[in-house]
Amino acid sequence: MTALTLLCEIIALGGNAAAALYRDDPRFAVLLRHGYLREAGVLTSVVCNDCDDAHAAPIVFEDGRYGYQCPELGFVVLDRADVQAVRPDPLFLIDCLFEVMGCKRRKQTPVHGQTWRIGSVETDAGEIMLYFHPNLESEDNARDVAHSLSREVRVQWRLIVTAIGTLAVGEAQTVKLIDFAAIDAETGAFRILTPPADLVGIPRKNKGGRPSEQGPALAEIISDRQKSGAALLGLNAESKAILAVFKERHPDKHFPSFETVRRHLKKSQGGS
């Protein structure tokens, strides 16, 4: 079970979660430390398991203390940590996916409802537009996504990433976040497991032709930066840094284009 698995479980709750339930789980600490979860005040209610009849009780703040009223026990005092609420930060999640794939055309607010546009990636066969929707388990969820996509410019290839459920939405492909990416527990960075082009069914092309003369030099720089820990998290940011190192190391060589550097970097990360 990974940190991303836990994040998807919390996203699937559809609201605030009790931090106390996860405080001993090291995966929870990873998500909180790297910004995938944020504190969200206090819970609105808890379940009382201390009396004969388990019951829900609203959280109240009386005389400087948090707690709840129980018909049998009276006012039950709770520590602040016991009522701490957390919730996923969808914008942070979208930003991380946007950066790791080097997307374009990100939207900072939901397209509609809970559907977010991550952005677009370019392939030889055309543009793939990526979206995120928390839940695709029910027909209502699928209708919500379809309604959101109807507000967007139509493209041939669409991929919807979800925390839970993969119901079909029109001609778009769907994938669970845990099958699409992974989180590095140390850095918090995303790593893409399966290229979007493969998920939407775009056939790979054998470009053939003469290998790039800059290829070996770029591969060496990419490897050096990854081994030394100097590599940046975002695809675009790291591509710019690699290009700068190339120019410094090989001032007498023809410089590769930014897109060429991006392509080599994506290939080294298991992309296409």
Written overview of the protein:
This protein is of the alpha+beta class and 272 residues long. It has 3 domains: 3-88, no CATH class; 90-200; 215-268, no CATH class. The chain has 9 helices and 14 strands. The chain has helices at 3-12, 26-34, 90-101, 139-149, 177-180, 196-200, 215-228, 235-249, 258-268, and strands spanning 17-18, 37-42, 45-48, 55-58, 60-62, 65-70, 74-78, 84-88, 116-123, 126-135, 157-164, 173-176, 181-183, 190-192. The strands form 5 sheets. Strands 9-10-11-12 form a 4-stranded mixed β-sheet. The protein has a 3-stranded antiparallel β-sheet with strand order 1-8-2. Helix 7 packs across helix 8 (235-249). The longest helix is centred in the C-terminal third of the chain and has 15 residues, at 235-249.
Observed structural traits:
3-stranded antiparallel β-sheet, 272 residues, alpha+beta
